[in-house]
Structure formats: structure tokens, C-alpha cells
Amino acid sequence: MSLDRISLAQPTLDGNERKYVLDCLDTNWISSIGKYIGAFEERFADFCGVEHAIATNNGTTALHLAVVGMGVEPGDEILVPTLTYIATANVVRYCGAVPVFVDSSPNALNIDPEQLAQHVTDRTRGVIPVHLYGQPADMRKISEFCKENGLWSVEDAAEAHGAGIEGKRVGGWGHCATFSFFGNKIITTGEGGIVTTDDPELAQQLRLLRGQGMDPDRRYWFPVIGYNYRMTNIQAAIGLAQLETIDRAIEARSEIASWYDEFLCPLGDEITTVADPPWAQSVVWVYNVFLRDGGETERDAAMAGLDELGIETRPVFYPMHVLPPYREEATYPHAERWARSGITLPTHQGLSRLDVERVARSLEQTLRNR
Ligand SMILES: *Cc1c(COP(=O)(O)O)cnc(C)c1O
Fold first, then answer.
1. What pLDDT, on the 0 to 100 scale, is given for residue 1?
2. Which of 29, 57, 317, 367 sits between 20 and 30 A of 261, alpha carbons compared?
3. With a 6 A CB cut-off, is 344 part of the ligand 1 pocket?
4. What number does the ligand 1 atom closest to the CA of 60 have?
5. What is the pTM of this model?
6. 347 Cβ closer than 6 Å to some ligand 1 atom
7. Residue-level pLDDT at 6
């Protein structure tokens, strides 16, 4: 008997998505003007508990816009975690600036606040902490550090919609924050992104930069060089519908995580997971397991074994400092350990308890057959 493949990720579009998209088509508002853009921005700002949200065409452009808004210039140094998705480092490079990598914490994947100070020089301007896989970075310590050193912070919250720290949601901790709405994120607009901030002047500047730099009061007058990073009304229409059901999306993913916890319990000697710090209200973007011993070869073999059993997985991100554009001699032992031992398991709203059990049993079978 052959079982259906279990995919790593898939969007859930079971609310008003179709209705709102058809409304865009029926009314001819398919480009980057239309009622859904403002409605989506307002609702997302409310969701994060911030004053302003500026929607963009993807999460990378949101992050690029944010660092441009922070005034990053060639030669500036920006502290970023080495363990992240490459967009975090790339947007710094887009500005001609230098991403300076910082190791993960010993007990969490996120940037270690205790290691920030050792990387500061007179060219350091800011920090981009990433709330990796839905677990918030410790913004209390990072904000304090930034204040003491005259630095800004931009949260890369691409993977952490709805996560919080001591009850206050991510997106409102840094000078600004960015989110992604790619198809595999917690909510999606197909491709899409957004910047959130409480700073009205920054919000205004980001709107200007997003729309080619055109003066809002004088058409075809461009006081600055901007970008076309606009979100379309169709994307925003999908996003608004997704926001209407985001609580359910977050709830479903944490339920999947609790099923994984339950079914993977017998594998406690072989694998571990990252614990949630007591001050954090994490969300589950994806569920990761880490092999207790063995390196990349064993990890890749386990993934191949799962693939044969019809389970799609992927490796935890490679640290930036091992990738060709950012290769360094320096070692970042915690990030390297997480990266070489980590497997991302299927995590999406369409998974049943039975699916999760099958993934867990397949992992058990794969590891026991080594
Ligand atoms: C997804 C992601 C991005 C980029 O978002 P896109 O919408 O894919 O451009 C940036 N940072 C992190 C940490 C991400 O996971």
C-alpha cells in the first residue's frame, strides 16, 4: 500500500479569500491601488498592537525598506544572527553595508544577546534580531543593549506573526519590524510583506520609498530615489481574509506541535527540541527536531529515510557564515550545532493528528534502522 505524501507546507485558504479576490476582479482594482490595501494594513497594525503598517510585495522588500528607513549607508555594520534565512543578511548587503554575524544562544536558535557587545565597533549602527521559527528573540535585552549603545533595532518577524514577549506582541519591540506573507508562512498573500512601526515619521518615509519616492502631494515629483515595492490589491484581499482567521491558524499550528511532542516522546534519547523561555509566547511556524548525536551526514540520511517513507522535510537553515557569499573562517559553535542536527518536519493547518503520528512513526523507524 502506498500512502499519500505528506508535504512540508501548504496554505489554508478557507475563509473569504475567494470572495475578496473576486471583488478585486469584478471591480477592476487589481493593481496597487484599492480598498483592501488600507484595510489589510490597518488590521495588521491592530493585530500587532502598533500604530502603522506599510504593506509591500514581499518580506525581503519589507526588510530592505526598513533598513533603508534606518538610514543604513555603505560601510555601516549591522549585527545579524548567523542562523537565519538569507534575506536578513542580503538586505544589509543591498545597502552596501556589512552584516556582522552573531552566534545563537546555547539553549535557543535565536541571536544571543550576551554576545552582541563583543561585535560592536565604531561602525555598528543597528541590530536585526530574527524571531526564528516563531520563537521570539529576547527583545527586552536587545532593546536595552541598543539603547545603551545608541543603536537601532529592526525585528525580522517574518516567521513569527502573533508571537509575544511578556504579553506584548512582536512587531512592536524594535524601531520597526517586518513580516513575510510567502506561501509557507503562518498567513500568506502568495508573495507579500509588511513593515510595522509606532513612529509616524518613519511610516511616512517608508510609504514614500515604497512608491518610487513620489511626493504624495505632487504627482511625478520625486524628492528621493525610491523603489517599487508596492503590494497589490489582490494580495491584500487575500491577506485581509487570512487575518480574519489568523487566530485559528496559530492555534492549529500549536496543536500540531503538541501532537508532535506527544508522538515523539519515545524518541527522547535520540532527538531534542528547543524549549520555550518562560517570558516568551512563541508561535509555531514550523516544528523542528534536533538529532542528539551525529552531524550533517546522519541528519541528511534521516531526511532521505523520511523522503522514502513519503514525508517531505527540510534542513534547519545553514548559518550565513558557511554560505559562499558570506563565508568566514570564524566559527559560531551554537548556530553550527543547531544547523547540522536540525530537521524541519511538516507543519501546516491541513495536517491531521493521524498525519502527525505517521510522521513521528516514520522518523522513529528511520532512526532505529540506522
Ligand atoms: C521568509 C523570510 C524572509 C523573507 O520573506 P519573503 O517574503 O520570502 O521575501 C525574511 N526573513 C526570514 C527570517 C524569513 O523566514
1. 52
2. 317
3. no
4. 9
5. 0.97
6. no
7. 98
CATH number of 17-244: 3.40.640.10
Return mean pLDDT, the chain. Answer: 97
Q: Is the shortest distance between the CB of 194 and ligand 1 below 6 Å?
A: no
Amino acid at 297: T
pLDDT of residue 369: 85
pLDDT in tens, 50-85: 999 999 999 999 999 999 999 999 999 999 999 999
Domain boundaries, the chain: 17-244, 247-368
CB 44 less than 6 A from any atom of ligand 1: no
The CATH topology of domain 247-368 is: Aspartate Aminotransferase, domain 1 (3.90.1150)
Identify whether the C-beta of residue 80 lies closer than 8 Å to the C-beta of residue 101: yes
Which residue has the CA at smallest separation from atom 7 of ligand 1? 59
Q: What angle do CA 94, 97, 100 make, to 5 degrees?
A: 115
What is the CA angle 65-170-86, rounded to 5?
50
Residue 357 falls in which region: left (phi positive, over 0), alpha (psi -120 to 50) or beta: alpha
